[in-house]
TrEMBL record:
The lineage of its organism: Bacteria, Bacillati, Bacillota, Clostridia, Eubacteriales. Pfam families: DUF951 (PF06107). This is DUF951 domain-containing protein. It comes from Fumia xinanensis. InterPro entries: DUF951. It comes from the Bacteria.
Amino acid sequence: MDIKVGDTLIMKKNHPCGENRFSVLRVGMDFKLRCQKCGHEIMIPRSKAEKGVKRVESSGED
């Protein structure tokens, strides 16, 4: 899965605030994601993040 910094991930499960859209802040062994509704930042392992992604919206940058 090709996920870059700046992309928006639509996840299968919602964040506790009710939003399922997250911005990617960092990629590597862990992903750092920011909820687009409440701004909470989380770090989750790459394997868990890739399993939970429903769709990736690109940032438009190359």
